[in-house]
Write a structure and sequence with these properties.
The protein contains two helices and seven strands, in the order E-H-E-E-E-E-E-E-H. The protein is of the alpha+beta class. The protein has one domain (2-147): START domain (Alpha-D-Glucose-1,6-Bisphosphate, Chain A, domain 4, 2-Layer Sandwich). It has a seven-stranded antiparallel β-sheet with strand order 1-7-6-5-4-3-2, with helices on one face. The longest helix is centred in the C-terminal third of the chain and has 30 residues, at 119-148.
């Protein structure tokens, strides 16, 4: 199993974001990640319940499915139900060491055809980490864009 985690400060640039704005942005990203993540080209919510949804999406040309669970203003957990990379992805609003808010993405995935601890897995992890770390940046950038445009009204 491959696990990667990356935390970025949220309010190291303007506009400064509140926890409700970040949360609203993460919920929107779960429902339709296309504007937030360049690697995702399509997404369709196929089922919905209290604090969860099931979605089909296309990531780098691969059709996948995830069950998404919401822990309001804390964490969004994506559990892969169809993919060549099974596991979980978490987006969390956290407190950093300096007491500020941060956005942490954590990926724990088992990739089909890659042996745990192998050189191939390490190479895959290196390629994937760059893309996923960019995902944290692009998510915050899209939330900031929506706040500036008045599209996120959370105080």
């Amino acid at each position: 199993m491959l696990t990667l985690s990356h935390t970025m400060p949220i309010n190291d640039r303007e506009p400064y974001l509140t926890r409700p704005q970040i949360w609203q942005g993460l919920v929107l990203k779960a429902e339709n990640p296309v504007p937030f993540l360049d690697a995702i080209s399509a997404c369709n919510v196929i089922e919905r319940g209290d604090n969860w949804l099931l979605r089909d999406f296309t990531l780098r040309g691969e059709d996948m499915q995830e069950r998404v669970a919401f822990e309001p203003e804390e964490r969004v957990t994506f559990v892969r139900t169809k993919s060549t990379a099974m596991g979980t992805v978490m987006n969390e609003v956290v407190e950093t060491n300096d007491g500020e808010m941060g956005l942490r993405f954590t990926f724990s995935l088992e990739v089909e055809g890659l042996e745990d601890g192998s050189a191939e897995e390490a190479e895959f992890a290196d390629r994937m980490s760059k893309s996923y770390f960019q995902g944290v940046e692009s998510t915050l950038a899209e939330i900031r864009r929506r706040v500036t445009a008045g599209e996120l009204n959370a105080a």
